[in-house]
Amino acid sequence: MFSVALVVLEPGAMREVHWHTTSDEWSYFLQGSARITVYKAPVSSRTFDFTAGDVGYIPQAQSHYVENTGTDDVIFLEVLQAKKFSDISASQWLALTPRQVVKDTLNLTDEVLDALPRDKTLIKPGNANLTALAGVSS
Predict the structure, then answer these.
(1) Which of 79, 63, 76 is nearest to 23 (CA)?
(2) Which sequence spans correspond to the domains of the chain?
(3) In this predicted structure, what is the pLDDT of residue 138?
């Protein structure tokens, strides 16, 4: 049994930091150029680049995000071996955790905590002009 999400990331956008509690994830890239960063608690991370036809693998419960690194939309399938597709959003999880716990643990300001979305936002928009962000002039 599998569940699948079709994800489209515009240039500069990213699939927010999240993890899956019930399954490993396989990401099959249909279009575009992307980068996945996977965090394995407590101290390691790995980053991989993908293009159309590539398959990414993220072990169960390891947090990760996918970012569009190109100038075209990234389209990929997020596949889980589970009856229902589900994930945990890092930002929503922090927003719904008791505020004082988050402040004491992460030393975040009230301003940062107020900006955390209480509703899940799967896609985070970004600046499509990545060369401008890097300070590169043409």
Answers:
(1) 79
(2) 3-88+121-132
(3) 45
The CATH number of domain 3-88+121-132 is 2.60.120.10 = yes
Which two structure tokens, joined as six digits, stand for 91? 């930002």
pLDDT 10s digit of each residue in the chain, 138 long? 999 999 999 999 999 999 999 999 999 999 999 999 999 877 889 999 999 999 999 999 999 999 999 999 999 999 999 999 899 888 888 889 999 999 999 998 999 999 888 887 766 677 666 545 555 544
Tell which residue, 10, 113, 27, has the closest CA to residue 64.
Answer: 27
Q: Is residue 16 among the annotated active site residues?
A: no
From the list 16, 25, 67, 78, the catalytic residue is 78
55 close to 26: Cβ distance less than 8 angstroms: yes
